[in-house]
Amino acid sequence: MVAHPTQPRREVTRSSRARVAFAMHRGLRERLLDDELLGRLRAVADIEPGPALHEFSSPQAVACLGRADILVTGWGCPPLTADVLALAPLLRAVVHAAGSVKHHITPACWERGLSVSSAASANAVPVAEYTVAMIILANKRVFPLAAEYRSAGTSTNVSARYPSLGNYRKRIGIVGASTIGRRVLALLRDYAFDLVVSDPYLTDAEAGELGAELVDLDELVATSDVVSLHAPALPETCHLIDARRLSMMRPGTTLINTARGDLVDTDALTAAVQGGQLYVVLDVTTPEPLPFDSPLRNHPHVVLTPHVAGSLGTELLRMGELAVSEVERLITGVPPRHAVLQHMLGRTA
Fold first, then answer.
1. Is 260 a catalytic residue?
2. How far is the CA of 87 from the CAs of 47, 62, 106, 117, 268, in angstroms?
3. How far is Cα 216 from Cα 41, in angstroms, rounded to an integer?
4. Would you call 280 helix, strand, or coil by DSSP?
5. What is the pLDDT of residue 10?
6. Is the pLDDT of residue 344 over 90?
């Protein structure tokens, strides 16, 4: 059973086994958990019948909350306010089968003493893989060359037009030693890259352990061939990449953003791209999506994707598997492996 902190509770008729409920978008649970993962859950807990909750006000939702020991959440989970938690007297843990918990974990959850965990490390895998793929392709100028070849129907003198093309000895700048940033650095260590990282909470020794040199952000943007953003969206990181830092980037630099659109000043970025010397890979933007008349939509130096770097398709099962493992640990009295603590939220996405 889940170890419960001391907490007044309403008497609820229930079995001796822990009970797991789900709260997320309609249809998401079926994509997160296949038959094997559901079987693992059923082996250790009773699963609340019926579809996952997408609201907490209906009689069915209220009854479900009243029986739950553990709530497995996902994208679309409504905020767990004090009023909602009052409907869930047995609830002792929230296991988020996705990344950031900021959208639904409220101060009331910490006041209640809930155990909170997240599958952010599982979601980091496809984002890091996407980033590395884009770095490799960007340094080879694959995107503009493919467009030119498609329209011209013949090859061009690639070496003459792109003398710095290639991945050998390129400097890759990672902005943010987040879970994703660290995984990107780990994947890049096998390449012949010069790796640098900028993060206000990182030490020189920690950067060295990641295979990178710690530099300040201005030096990173001014000296890197690729600048890849992996910082959280916080008040102090809004427009982290502004007109001044964009102007510091060398001609031919590629900027990759798979983090949050607010990290980049979109107006300043648009002006820099239209200047013709900056390449951009954007999986996130502000606003999202960009207006149809945005120059970034059709510019040959821009690769624009619709927020696809994170977990999609079969990759959702990785997050589901992590969530099931966390439930198994909680039920056997073992602390979650991927716990989220309140003080962490000021530094994470």
1. yes
2. 18, 6, 15, 21, 48
3. 46
4. strand
5. 37
6. no
d(CA 168, CA 191): 8
Beta-bridge mates of residue 213: 196
| 307 given a catalytic annotation | yes
Q: Model pTM?
A: 0.92
| CB crowding 227-249: b at 16 or more within 10 Å, else e | bbbbbbbbeebebbbeeebbebb
Between CA 279 and CA 298 the distance in angstroms is 13
* Percent residues over pLDDT 90 in the chain: 88
Region of poorest pLDDT, from 55-59, 158-162, 217-221: 158-162
Q: Are 38 and 49 in contact (CB under 8 A)?
A: no
And the tokens for 169?
A: 């000895």
Bridge partner residues of 264 (DSSP): 241
Catalytic residue of the set 260, 301, 318, 329 = 260
What b-and-e string marks burial along 274-312, b requiring 16 or more CB atoms within 10 Å of the CB? Answer: eeeebbbbbbbbbeeebeeebebeebebbbbeeeebbbe
Using N-to-C axis directions, what is the helix angle for 35-44 and 316-331, rounded to 10°? 10
CA distance linking residue 188 with residue 183, whole number of Å: 9
Contact assessment for residue 90 and residue 111, using Cβ atoms and an 8 Å cutoff: no
Q: 213 is written with which tokens?
A: 């040199």
Biggest CA pair distance of the chain: 77
φ/ψ bin of 113: left (φ > 0), alpha (ψ from -120 to 50), beta (otherwise)? left
Q: Nearest 10 degrees: CA dihedral of 22, 26, 27, 30?
A: 0
pLDDT score, position 148: 86
Listed in sequence order, the DSSP H helices in 10-119 are 28-32, 35-44, 59-67, 82-86, 107-112
Tokens representing 251? 């001609």
From 213, 307, 315, 328, active-site residue: 307
Q: One of 17, 161, 288, 337 is an active-site residue; which one?
A: 288
For 317, list phi and psi in degrees, rounded to 5.
-65, -30
Mean pLDDT calculated for residue range 213-241: 97
